[in-house]
Specification:
The protein is mainly beta. The chain has two helices and 14 strands. Strands 1, 2, 3, 4, 5, 6, 7, 8, 9, 10, 11, 12, 13 and 14 form a 14-stranded parallel β-sheet that branches. The longest helix is centred in the C-terminal third of the chain and has 10 residues, at 192-201. The protein is elongated. The mean pLDDT is 90.
Length: 208
């Protein structure tokens, strides 16, 4: 997957105050700042970079990213009413417990981030890569995943109940105690060890 390489030199430097004022966040570079526990009606990021920004426990009614980058940010416990991600990247961020129910995410990548206990209930993900992420206890109940890859992720106790998985690659990730239903699996790629583990979950008997 090719994500647009943002030219930082072309971006206009801004500050965290722009987010609180509701200013347009397009073509901006925001480095540093703390707005924990804030209430934000809209946060539309377009061709924008946020780096080392903390928004822990904030409430964002409408959060969107288009061709943008979050780097080394902290969004633990953030609540969103609506969220949309397109051709964007999230790198080395703390996002434990973020609420992304019914999120729409496509052509995006999340790298080296902490997403434990994140809520992806009824989300729709297409052409998305999770790489080296902590995703223990992630909730994908009712979610629709199409062309999604998990590379080297911890998916311990992740819940995929009532979800639809089409062309999803779990190989190389830790799926210990994963909750998944065979009827939800349309095309899932796993490694040999995972296949043996999943066969025990689905009640399959393997004969040599």
């Amino acid at each position: 997957m090719k994500i647009k390489n943002i030219d930082r030199k072309s971006l206009q430097k801004s500050s965290i105050e722009a987010i609180m004022k509701g200013d347009s966040i397009e073509g901006c570079l925001i480095e540093g700042g703390d707005i924990d526990d804030a209430e934000i009606s809209e946060l539309p990021l377009d061709n924008t970079v946020l780096e080392n920004v903390s928004m822990n426990q904030s409430k964002i009614d409408d959060f969107s990213m288009t061709e943008s980058l979050l780097s080394k940010c902290s969004l633990a416990g953030v609540e969103t009413e609506s969220s949309f991600f397109l051709r964007s990247q999230i790198s080395s961020c703390r996002m434990q417990g973020i609420q992304l129910s019914q999120a729409r995410m496509s052509d995006s990548i999340i790298i080296g981030s902490k997403l434990a206990s994140t809520n992806f209930r009824y989300a729709k993900l297409k052409n998305v890569i999770f790489e080296n992420c902590d995703m223990a206890d992630v909730d994908f109940i009712g979610a629709e995943l199409v062309n999604v890859t998990f590379k080297g992720c911890s998916l311990q106790k992740a819940i995929f109940s009532q979800s639809t998985l089409s062309n999803v690659d779990l190989s190389g990730s830790d799926i210990q105690d994963i909750v998944i239903e065979d009827k939800a699996v349309k095309e899932v790629f796993v490694d040999t060890g995972q296949a043996l583990y999943l066969s025990s979950i689905f009640g399959l008997k393997i004969r040599d």
